[in-house]
Amino acid sequence: MKILVTDDSRVMRQIVIRTLRQAGYDDHDIVEAVDGRDAFDKVGSEKPDLVLSDWNMPEMTGIECLEALRASGSQVPFGFVTSEGSPEMREKAANAGALFLIAKPFNEDTFKDALDGVIS
Fold it and tell me: What positions are modified (4-aspartylphosphate) (predicted)?
């Protein structure tokens, strides 16, 4: 399985990747994107099986990326890993087609709870 990790912070991308590995998802290919625009482009070129995205990023936010992907016909599984998790954001994410929203702080158990049904 190929997982696209999207965050404008390189440190945060590394934390997400490390948490994926700690949660037991260490045998998957990881691709990184630096913002929503890069993620949108890499969904087309890299064909990931799952996108994990931050919400707030320059160029294109995570929700804008998800909406653009769905508008283009892409049904790639998409989840958010973000610093905010208000009920309004969760509703907006779900309405746009996100499978889950993991709010910071998170740990490997949080990832397992969100991803066990998505990653096989």
Answer: 54
